[in-house]
Amino acid sequence: MHKIDIDLIEMTLDVMKYTIDRISKTDDVIGKPQKAETLKALVGDTVTKEGIGGENAFNLWKKHLMHANVKIDHPRHLAFVPASPTRAAVMFDLVTSASSIHGAYWMEGAGGIFCENEAMKWIVSLTGLPQGAFGVFTSGGTAANLSAIVTAREYWRSLDQKNQNEKGLIITSIGAHSSIKAMAKVVDVDVLLVDTEDKLQGEALQNTINSLTAHQRQRLFAVVATGGTTNAGIIDDLNGIAKVCNKEHLWFHVDAAYGGGALVADSVRHLFNGIERADSITIDPHKWMFSPYDCGAVIYKQPELAKKAHAQEGSYLDIFKDEGAHGFNPTDYQIQLTRRVRGLPLWFSLATHGTDRYKQAVERGIELANIAGKMIEDYKHVELVRDPSLSCVLYRRKGWQAEDYRNWTFDNHNKGFALVTPTKWKSGDTFETVSRFCFINPDTSEEDIKAILESML
Ligand SMILES: *Cc1c(COP(=O)(O)O)cnc(C)c1O
C-alpha cells in the first residue's frame, strides 16, 4: 500500500494537475447535489475486495462525483457564509496532509505548532486582548464555542461549592448562531434568548438579568455576544455587554466566527470596540481569513482557565509532560486530543502574502456589500431590508412570497449560474422571507451582482 512505484508517481502528478486546475478556475458551473441512488448508478461499486484502482476511482471522482458538490469559493456563491481559500493556503493544506503531523502535543508537532502559533499571535493582536491572551485552532466555530462554554462553566463551578450540582445558564440573543444552542445542549446548560435579532445592547442584557429569579441568577455564568451575526452581519454592543458582564461577574464570550475576519479592516474595526474585554472569542479562519476547511479558532483572555477545563489525563499521556517535550500543547485548550495542525495553511498564506493583503481582501468584501446595497437602491424591483452590515446584505424582491424566492434559488442553482439562498428577517412579531448576500470572495465582480439582481426581474 505504501511502496513507491511508478503508479504512485503518476497518481501524484494527476492529483497535482487536478489541484492546479481546480484552484486556477472557480468561475465555471457552480455544482449541485444529486440523489445518492443517482450517484450510485453512475459510479457502481467502488469499495470492493480487490479495489478498483486509483486511476479508476479518480476518474469517477472527476467525471461524476466532484460535480455533485457546490464550489463554495465560486464568485457567485453568496449563500450562507461562502469561502475563498487562498491558493497558498490550499497548497499548504496538501503539505500539511503529506507531513503527517500529530498536532496535539509540542513533543510531536513542535514545528507545525510553532507556525500555528505565529498565525495565532496575529489573530490575537487583532482582538486587542491583553498580554497573556492566546488561543488554539479548532475544527470550526462550533467546536470553538463548545470549548469556550466548557471553560466558562468549569471556571464558574470552581468558584463556589454551591455551583457544583447546579445546571448552568447562559444568556444570548436570537441573533446568535445555532451552534450556541446546540453546544449548550452538549454541555447541558440552559440558554435564555433575548428577543432581538438586531444589535444586543448592554441595557437589554441588564434588564434580562434583572428579571431573573434568584435561582436563575445563581445558575447564570456566561453571556454570549455575537461579533457579526451570521444572518445579517450585526455586531452586538460589545462595550455595553462587557460592562454588564464585569459588574455581574459573568464570563463574556464573543462569537465572531464569521465577523472576526473583519477585525483587520480599518473601515469597521470600531464596531468591535469592547471585544478586547472578552474572556473568550471564537473566530473562523475558514470563513473570512481565507483558509481551507476546516479551521476555527478559540482565544482566551486567561488560557490557564481553558487548560484547567480541557487538559486530558492518562498514563499513556504522561510522557508529553516530560522535560524534553516542554512547549505549547494545543490539546490542553480545546475539546480534541489528536488534531490536524489546521492553522498551518493559514500560517503559510499569511507568510506568503503578508497581513496587508488580508486587510485589502476583507475590505473588498465589505465594499462589495456596499456596492450591492447601492445597486439594490437603484433598481425598482428590489429594495433593502436594512443597510448592509459587514459583508451581509438583506433585501427583498418587491411582491415576492417565500415560494418565489425558493423557486428563484433553485432555478439559478440548477442552471449552475449562482447560489443565493433566502433567509428570514424578524421585525416586530413577524418573520419575513427575504434574499441575502454574504460576500467573502474578493473575486466576486460587480457584473456578478448585477446579473444575479437582474435574474429577479
Ligand atoms: C458559522 C458560524 C458558527 C459555526 O461555525 P462552524 O465553523 O460552521 O462550526 C458559529 N457562530 C457564528 C457566528 C457563525 O457564523
TrEMBL record:
Pfam families reported for this sequence: Pyridoxal_deC
Lineage of producing organism: Bacteria, Pseudomonadati, Bacteroidota, Flavobacteriia, Flavobacteriales
UniProt protein name: Aminotransferase class V-fold PLP-dependent enzyme
PANTHER family to which the protein is assigned, alphabetical: GROUP II PYRIDOXAL-5-PHOSPHATE DECARBOXYLASE, MIP05841P
Gene Ontology molecular-function annotations: transaminase activity
Cofactor: pyridoxal 5'-phosphate
Similarity field: Belongs to the group II decarboxylase family.
Keyword Flavoprotein carried by entry: no
Keywords, alphabetical: Aminotransferase, Decarboxylase, Lyase, Pyridoxal phosphate, Transferase
Transferase as UniProt keyword: yes
